[in-house]
Amino acid sequence: MVKHIVIFKLTSPVTPEERNQSVMKLKEIFGPLGNRLKYVIEYRTGVNITDVDHAGDFVIDATFATLDDLRRYQSSEPHREAVAAASIIKKAKLVVDYTF
Long-range contacts: 85-90, Cβ < 8 Å, 24+? Predict the structure, then answer.
């Protein structure tokens, strides 16, 4: 099994309202992906609920059977479309992929 975790941290100075709008837009963009691709075993998105400087703002937490399935997800049309749509939001991204 392969776990794929992506954490986004908004990078522009943002007000709480701008932060909320941006993370809701990320949720709208990335939330449906897990239901669109049959080889995704588990897929969750989440918005950070704590107010600490070192926390990310939005997370994608996905599980795949194999590394090939993860790569297939990353190169899929729905994922590429989501990445393109999210590119307007200024953010840093951290990714961790590991087997378990």
Answer: 85/29, 86/25, 86/26, 86/29, 86/30, 89/8, 89/10, 89/22, 89/25, 89/26, 90/10, 90/11, 90/12
